[in-house]
Specification:
Beta-galactosidase, Chain A, domain 5; about 5% helix; binds 6-O-phosphono-beta-D-tagatofuranose; Putative glucose-6-phosphate 1-epimerase
Length: about 290
């Protein structure tokens, strides 16, 4: 294990962020005039070889233990591997961006055995008044393969027990806590350990009465939306969670996981994107939480 690389700072007129080449890991983003939007644990790993708790881990080429339920490391090898910075600058809209690539040659031989395919992955982070993350995967080999992927976005919230996630009403989901198939009714609220994989392609809005803001989370090329909060009991058992931090975070993840893998024939590519913007909380929504 070695110390993490220095973060790359992306500075734009309407926002600023930081990203590591290790895992192509977005670590921070704050739009002009707002508090930081991404949460990172105070006990997050500071050395390579371990996943970083918080920011936006890139889950690839599998999610969690994979569809076999036995894959290691959890969430694949991309987030614990050094990516190559291959471009950075300002785009025509004035956003600051950086782009990283990963190929099998960058992955340790041992980890590569779990996914013996030729691929090229690119993670592009763009910051300004919005945060845009794009994971593009190309099958550069001769054989068709399937992947799972997710942008495991950890949002900073004032109090997870008081936020409401709007946009999932009526959406079916797999409850990873109870192992049940269920359907969401109304806004999602966090009343215990929450670990849900929704069959969902649209936008969600995270209403945060304590920070007085709405985080608008939209996406492209994604059939799964994952919502996760470990709650206090599970967080206490995680060394990279300070005991009370679970209440200041909520993961809302764009992905293609479990029953919605991405299948790529030779030469095919797929892009998964997530965009986060900050809006003020409406008076009606603020009143909801009292
Ligand atoms: O995205 C939710 C989830 O799959 C949960 O099941 C939980 O395991 C979380 O990811 C964190 O995973 P990690 O490997 O980063 O501890």
């Amino acid at each position: 294990m070695t110390r993490l690389p220095e973060p790359l700072t992306l500075t734009a007129p309407h926002g600023e962020g930081t990203v590591l080449s290790y895992g192509a890991h977005a670590m921070s983003w704050a739009p002009e005039g707002h508090e930081p939007v991404l949460w990172v644990s105070s006990r997050a790993a500071t050395e390579t070889g371990r996943a970083i708790r918080g920011g936006v881990p890139v889950c690839f080429p599998w999610f969690g233990p994979g569809r076999t339920g036995e894959m290691t490391p959890a969430h694949g090898f991309a987030r614990i591997t050094e990516w190559h910075l291959d471009d950075q600058g300002q785009d025509d809209a004035g956003n600051a961006f950086a782009s990283f690539t990963l190929t099998p040659q960058d992955v340790s031989e041992q980890l590569r055995e779990s996914f013996p395919h030729e691929f090229s992955a690119t993670l592009r982070m763009s910051v300004g008044s919005a945060l845009r993350l794009e994971l593009s995967v190309t099958n550069t080999g001769e054989e068709t393969f399937e992947i799972e992927e997710a942008l495991h976005t950890c949002l900073s919230v004032g109090d997870a027990t008081r936020v409401r996630v709007r946009g999932l009403d009526g959406v079916p989901f797999h409850d990873k806590v109870t192992k049940e198939q269920r359907t969401q009714v109304g806004d999602l609220t966090v009343e215990g350990e929450t670990d849900a994989v929704f069959a969902h392609r649209g936008e969600v809005r995270v209403l945060d009465p304590d920070l007085g803001r709405t985080l608008v989370v939209s996406k492209e090329g994604s059939d799964s939306t994952v919502v996760w909060n470990p709650w206090k009991d599970k967080a206490v058992g995680m060394s990279d969670f300070a005991d009370d931090e679970w209440q200041q975070m909520l993961c809302v993840e764009a992905g293609n996981v479990m029953g919605s893998p991405v299948r790529l024939a030779a030469g095919e590519s797929h892009v998964l994107a997530q965009v986060i913007e900050v809006e003020p909380l409406s008076e009606d929504d603020a009143a909801l939480q009292g």
